[in-house]
Amino acid sequence: MFYFLNLFTKVKAAEAKALGFCFNDGGREAAGFQGSAGDCVVRSIAIALRLPYLRVYEDLRVANATYAQSRSDKLARRLNASGTSPRNGNHRNVFHEYILRHGFKWVPTMQIGSGCQVHLRSNELPSGVLIVRVSKHLTTVIDGVIQDTHNPSRAGQRCVYGYYLKQ
């Protein structure tokens, strides 16, 4: 039985169509930022919306600060303790509304208990401009090409939790 399941997995992987990859930092270096950072949210949004990196960075910094000041939940306490800089990540509560306000629609692809149904593969994602949410990362996919500072697809095995689709 184990061999059969393993064989099936190999067949499914063979049918996968890899996404292309293009290095794109979303204008981060041009904005004067150096070194590594957990800023995939800022980069992905800047790339997908074709906005300057610094504008998205500042918009999310303000959104983080507003969230931290207006709420008393665990996320707000963490933002207050660590600062509101989007350089070290953004919570979904903060960036979700920002992306929706810019004409994107959220399309969930995974439900609790359903297992992975969609992977970071060209034959499993629609064409167009997408901001794709995978585990602990956001990346932009434009017409089947990943636009990021690294290829997060894990050879087409990375599970997609959902994506924002440009309307």
SSE layout:
Layout: H1 2-15, E1 20-23, H2 40-49, H3 53-70, H4 74-82, H5 92-101, E2 104-108, E3 129-134, E4 137-142, E5 145-148, E6 160-166
Parallel strand pairs: 1-5
Antiparallel strand pairs: 2-6, 3-4, 3-6, 4-5
- First-residue to last-residue Cα separation: 45 Å
On the 0 to 100 scale, the average pLDDT is 84
Question: How large is the share of residues in beta strands?
Answer: 15-25%
Structural class: alpha+beta
Radius of gyration: 17 Å
Could you tell me the number of beta strands? 6
Annotation keywords:
19% strand, six-stranded mixed β-sheet, disordered N terminus
Compact description:
The protein is an alpha+beta fold and 167 residues long. The chain has helices at 2-15, 40-49, 53-70, 74-82, 92-101, and strands at residues 20-23, 104-108, 129-134, 137-142, 145-148, 160-166.
What can you see in these coordinates?
The protein is α+β, with helices and mostly antiparallel strands and 167 residues long. The protein has one domain (16-166). It is 37% helix and 19% strand. The chain has helices at residues 2-15, 40-49, 53-70, 74-82, 92-101; strands at residues 20-23, 104-108, 129-134, 137-142, 145-148, 160-166. Strands 1-5-4-3-6-2 form a six-stranded mixed beta sheet, with helices on one face. The longest helix has 18 residues, at 53-70.
